[in-house]
Amino acid sequence: MIDVAKTAGFCYGVKRAVDGVYKEIEKGNKIATLGHLIHNGQVIEELEEKGVKSYDRIEDIPPEYAVVIRAHGVGENVYRAAEGRQVIDLTCPFVAKIHKIVKEHYDKGYKIVIVGDKAHPEVIGINGHCGESAFIINDIKTEIPPELSEKQLCIVAQTTINREFFGEIVQNIKKTCKSTLVFDTICSATKDRQKEADELSQKSDVMIVIGGRESSNTRKLFEICKRNCPLSYHVETAGDLPAKITHNKIGITAGASTPSGIIEEVVKAMSENVKNEENFAELFAQSESKTLNNGDIVEGIVAEVRNNEVIVELKGSKYNGQLAADQLTNDPALKPSDVVKVGDTIKVYVVGVNDGEGKVVLSRKKVINEEGWIKIKEAFEANKTLEGKITKAVKGGVIAITDDTQIFIPARQAAGRFVQDLQSLVGTTVKYRIIEVDDRRKRVIGSVRVILEEERKEKEEKFWAEAEVGKRYEGVVKSLTSFGAFVDIGGVDGLVHISELSWNRIKHPSEVCKEGDVLDVYIKDINPETKKISLGFKKVEDNPWTIAQSKIAIGDIVKCKIVRMLPFGAFAEIIPNVDGLIHISQIADRKIGKPEDVLSIGEEVEAQVTDVNWDDKKISLSIRALIPTPIPEEKEEKDDTDVPLNAETLVYSTNPEVEVDEEIEIEPAEEPKVDEAPAEEEPKAEEKTEETEPAAEEAADEADAE
Ligand code: SF4
User: Fold this and answer.
1) 180 vs 135, 154, 161, 219, 669, CA distance in Å?
2) What's the confidence (pLDDT) of residue 521?
3) Could you write out the three-class secondary structure of 400-452?
4) Which protein residue's CA is at the shortest distance from atom 8 of ligand 1?
5) What per-residue confidence (pLDDT) applies to 354?
């Protein structure tokens, strides 16, 4: 079995140069190359036969000859010397790019460092773009001159050197030089060829490496193969092949300057040399590059994953393709290594073949988008729910990605409610449905909202089917208003009225909860017609009146605090949120004009519980009951002021929620008789009328208001 390396033979730059010269020959021009066009004696001979001459110095080239600059490129001095002459510049675009980098940075004051062989024509040419001032290094042991440590360095590489070697040299330089700008200018063609030779030679019994003996890249290939496969042969032509090869697994590769004709000859010769039933000519033809056209969709194997691009071995083609990171996936958050790994087979779209920079430019996004479009249309027709990650916010909406396909979701469709900051959705995973597909404009619109609406409706139906008064829920506070909190109890919202939020008196629901809080609520009332749900939140066991009932009994003496005063009496807090009324007549053991005459707000007093009405939440207190009654020395007549108070008269609601019966009022008729009151406190008759009667009216008004 014979395996011919896909990368065997001309690289892009060499092929371009050779083709360029043949084109000029066809035009009938007289051609002279500056140095041998390529490192291959057979090709040079063939060119010489066609009249192409080769000179080492431009000055030696006769004026009637067009000057060909080969793929290695030349320095600025050569271009200057060629001024006024016909120049056919076939410098490889990869090399020309290095010239540009070097020139620009040299002009900016950088010291140029070239990692490569100073005798190699390519390195000589690069050095010619910085006034031949570059520091050239090709050995890890070379000492870095101390004067470089003070300079800004611009480091470039000869295109054909080993990348690891370049990295080591750069690290070495960085140890002493702090300001370095590094350009990895190594050509992937060389690396790819070496990598394939390495792999092929590991699985071959015999390796044939074809190429000129002067060709450094061929020599390097041979070294690699020999290391893995002791039976490796470096041949220039088929004539150099060993006499007889009887091994089964034979690998063939060739240097960058080896024309396909020579490779073909070697393969043919092998077919006679080796008893192998395979048709080698056919094998070679199979290994030859398949013509790639712009717009082709082809399969490739990921050969290398870099930070900013992926190198893809295109099946059936001798060239590798370059897939820029932004053409790999639609998800901008992903790095190439998140998407593919070496060895993966991927489909790619050929954007350009051998363009200005000599690359096969690929796009995977185009393939994804094409395939994605079909899937999206199917999902639309089937009304299928899709899942995707929102990757970015754009004008008017967000972009979601599903199976690497981008879907636009307008802002109003991006959530169940209006979202001011669309950026806050980026990174979230959403379920959505395609609601619009425009075939002509290749436009597709998704909606998260339709899914949320459906889910909400479903939950709502379930809720109403199971809802009943008293049922408890763990609800989430969705919004607050001045009159209460709206709580989501599983797809539907109910209202917890402000009075239901706390046993304490609160001015706003925010004193108890905030949006997002989870509350343990129960249904107080529901109306399936109007879909209104009243929720309760307060716990019965926390009801201060329930607590009071277990602690307070008639006759008890309690400590309480004056919290409010009205003309007919003072309210005193016995326990938090439970107030009792000390009627004006029970504040002192004498007649007083108003409660403030004796008491003040905040004052702590002791009082006796004289009556309770738990149903109406009323407690009557008396301070007077605790004041010892002096025993009159001689008192025969009954003091009307001691007439027991009518319970109805004295019991007032202390609970603001409970209305006081209208008929509960101060009974003026029972006011102490003026002429029976102690002489020093006795008001005048006119005063009594003016004070007591309005006081009674006010009391009734207050009671109503309460
Ligand atoms: S830079 Fe690469 S493509 Fe250009 S001539 Fe050199 S090896 Fe060939």
Assistant:
1) 13, 6, 20, 32, 107
2) 93
3) EEECCEEEEEEHHHCCCCCCCCHHHHCCCEEEEEEEEEECCCCEEEEECHHHH
4) 13
5) 62
Please tell me if the CB atom of residue 5 comes closer than 6 angstroms to any atom of ligand 1: no
Say what percent of the chain tops pLDDT 90. Answer: 38
**Quick count: other Cβ atoms within 10 Å of Cβ 485?**
29
Tokens of 12: 């892009």
Whether the CB of 217 sits within 6 Å of ligand 1: no
> What is the spatial distance between Cα 287 and Cα 553, in angstroms, rounded to a whole number?
106
Task: List the beta bridge partners of residue 2.
Answer: 250
Active site residue 667: no
What per-residue confidence (pLDDT) applies to 648?
Answer: 38
Residue 254, CA distances (Å) to 146, 217, 225, 244, 573 in order: 42, 9, 11, 20, 103
Q: Which of 46, 49, 76, 122 is catalytic?
A: 122
Does any ligand 1 atom lie closer than 6 A to the CB of residue 160? yes
Distance CA 139, CA 130 (A): 21
Low-confidence ranges of the chain (pLDDT < 70): 244-247, 271-291, 318, 354-359, 631-706
Per-residue model confidence as pLDDT tens digits over 173-222 = 998 888 889 998 888 788 888 889 999 999 998 899 998 887 878 888 99
pTM, 2 dp: 0.43
Q: Which domains does the chain have, with CATH numbers?
A: 1-92+199-259+268-282 (3.40.50.11270), 93-182 (3.40.1010.20), 297-363 (2.40.50.140), 372-452 (2.40.50.140), 467-538 (2.40.50.140), 544-629+639-705 (2.40.50.140)
